[in-house]
């Protein structure tokens, strides 16, 4: 995944997946994760930048490869209509 913020520095973190990625405006940062189980994983921005910034919700939904491929196919169909 490539992370680049449009506004201020962020630090994208999902502790249960063992991932934290800093995002600095004007720079691209690359990270990858390998999720072993389907499910919903929650995280937060770990870079404090103003009121409630640390409470910025981050949600990752891990699905099977088939479910992901079906979702991509549906998105392509929606774009062509």
TrEMBL record:
Annotated compartments: Membrane
Gene3D superfamilies in alphabetical order: Cupredoxins - blue copper proteins (2.60.40.420)
Recorded GO MF terms: copper ion binding; cytochrome-c oxidase activity
Pfam family, one: COX2
Keywords from the named record: Membrane
Residue span, Cytochrome oxidase subunit II copper A binding domain: 1-74
Cofactor: Cu cation
GO cellular component, one term: membrane
InterPro entries: CcO_II, CcO_II-like_C, Cupredoxin
Catalyzed chemical reaction(s): 4 Fe(II)-[cytochrome c] + O2 + 8 H(+)(in) = 4 Fe(III)-[cytochrome c] + 2 H2O + 4 H(+)(out)
Family under the similarity heading: Belongs to the cytochrome c oxidase subunit 2 family.
Name this protein carries in UniProt: Cytochrome c oxidase polypeptide II
């Amino acid at each position: 995944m490539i992370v680049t913020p449009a506004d201020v520095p962020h630090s994208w973190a999902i502790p249960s997946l063992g991932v934290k990625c800093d995002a600095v405006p004007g720079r691209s940062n690359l990270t990858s994760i390998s999720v072993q189980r389907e499910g919903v994983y929650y995280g937060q921005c770990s870079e404090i930048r103003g009121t409630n910034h640390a409470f910025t919700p981050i949600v990752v939904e891990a699905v099977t490869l088939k479910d992901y491929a079906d979702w991509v196919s549906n998105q392509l169909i929606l774009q062509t209509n």
